[in-house]
Amino acid sequence: MASRRGKDERPKMIHCEYCGEDYSSTYKHCPFCDEVEQQDYDDQEEYEDSAPRSRGGKRLVTNTRGGGYGGSPSPLRTVGMVLSLALIVAAVIIVITIIMPLVSKGHTEPGSSVPPESSAPVTEESETPGPEDSTPPAVESPENTIPAEQTATGFTLDQTEFSFSDRYPDPITVHVTFIPAGSTGTITWTSSDPSIVSVDENGKVSHGTTRGSATITASLPGAADQTILVYNQVTSGTSSSSGSSSTGGSTSTGTLSLNKTDFTFSAKDNPSVQMKVNGTSSTPVWSIGNTAVATISADGVVKPVGPGSTTITCTVDGQTLKCIVRCSF
Question: At residue 76, what are phi and psi to the nearest 5 degrees?
Answer without folding.
Answer: -65, -40
